[in-house]
Specification:
heterodimer; A: six-stranded mixed β-barrel; two-stranded antiparallel sheet; 12 strands; B: 227 residues; alpha/beta; Rossmann fold; 7 helices; globular
Amino acid sequence: MGMLIRIAWRNIWRHKTRSFVVLGAISLGIWSLIFLLSFSRGLIYNLIDNSIRREIGHVQVEHENYRQKREIGYLVEESARKVALMAADPAVEAVTRRLLVSGMVSSARGARGVQIWGVEPGEEGRVSFIREKITEGDFLPEGHSPPLLISGRLASRLGIQMKSKVVLTFQDLDGHITAGAFRVAGLFDSGTTPFDEGTVMVRREDLLVLTGGAERDPAHQLVAVVVHPDSAAAVRDRLTAVMAGDKVTTYREVAPEIALYESQIGMSNMIMITIFMLALIFGIINTMLMAVLERVRELGMLMAIGMNRRKVFLMVVLETLFLGLTAMPAGLILVEVSLAFFGQTGIDLRTFSEGMREYGMSEVVYPDPATDIYLRVSLSVVATAFLGALYPAWKAVRLKPVDALTKI
Amino acid sequence: MSMIVTTDLSRTYNPDTIPVHALRGVTLTIGSGEFTAIVGPSGSGKTTLLNLIGGLDTPSGGRVLVGGTDMSRLSGNALIDFRKNHIGFVFQSYNLIPVLTAYENAEFVMLLQGRPEKERRERVRALLAAVGLEAHMDRRPSQLSGGQQQRVAVARALAPRPDFILADEPTANLDSHSAENLLDMMARLNGEEGTTFLFSTHDQRVIDRARRVITLVDGEVAEDVRR
């Protein structure tokens, strides 16, 4: 075996230029595959995280009819007690409650239909990322006039700016139309166009007064983020047991597209690895077939003097494996260097910013390599090298020494 | 004692299209320790005879017995193993393994046989010294002259102590000085180790050294002279 290894290793350096070209191709293949998979995973988790941190959290509690009908009357009662129950769960990191009404925001220049969020800034800031997305002003500060947080994009459409007055018109809890004046106290940019153009935020207590629910302590949504997303289902089950009449759901149920994205990561990885293996396998077959065909005479001599077919086969397979195993560290080093760089700076996709905003993605994507991706790609390279070696090795052992020895 | 026996040996190429009769009923007996040359014009069947005796080719008729073993009954890896353990080959164009040194080339078949390292080392060093390449054992074939490469090939063929050595035109690519050296060396090893040598050759110098000369013409034995 030692002799076979020695011959196989030296054989790959017989044509240095050719070997370096093949090694370079495999290394670049490994780099591009892992980088692409990390980028695509970063992109999808960016989308998922944005959805969770912008709006839906990991676990939601709502009236059992609210999600279908979205009517103001479907409330979670005793919201403070239920928030405390949720916060007491050890897997829960933070909880907030929201009063949500559909209405109209009007300025001197125009009006837009929006969803009005009545939030508690302190808790909301721990559950969602909206506090970090404020570009001007503060997150609903206390003051004389009821404050309003609006996106810069919507403010611009309404022709308003900081400290401008707007009027919110909506239905109260009894079904009557009501309205209130608010002053713009902050502008935000969530990075998601539909959200920015369709949402304004006010303090929950201000909205409770206008809707007539101040004495009932109601909310439409109780939203929690958990420490580990995988524990969301367990938290849902525990809360369901203590919240009769309310519906407890996880982010996967609220936004099934997220579950789809998560499941697609695995599938798209498999597809990309398969494409990579197919491209690599033909390159390897080509190279090794060339290596076998130009050594026909030598292989014939080896079999003539006593090297059996199993050893000849093994020698060709070993040569191919050595090519893959030599290229692998180089490819992995390239991956590490580029991921270290782009992990710091991110990949700036501002050129596609409008499209990204429509889908709720950030303009800068950070590649996110899965822990098992190195192992999977490395095993794929070894498996591909092995499979790619089979045909050339088979060609080698099919040679008849008497014919091979007379080949020029 | 008979080392090689061929009985009514024939080989026909392209039997179904345009048959070429390379050998026609050759019957020969080569004894142990012989130093025999097979001569004849091009196309007379010298290489074909050597290939059949060496188990590299299959006869169309007749049979080859090597040390009592019928070669036609062996196939695949059994035949390869038989060659490894009983036959040494020296080819016209040396056919060394280019990525191995002279020492490693000479050691190669012994490694395939699984001989112990100490035995290999002693045998290979002794043979390389005998062929005058002790100082060049770390060189690869590309760093050796044609004559030196052919001497490494002889050392490789002798190292596993085969029953006999088949040498197909061993001096064809050598200058006269290298050819004489090689023949001296092979004659000496034949004398010292009693190894049977069977050459195919055109070279008069080889024919002059041979103790038996078998002449083939059109695939048949035309003359068999012992000296």
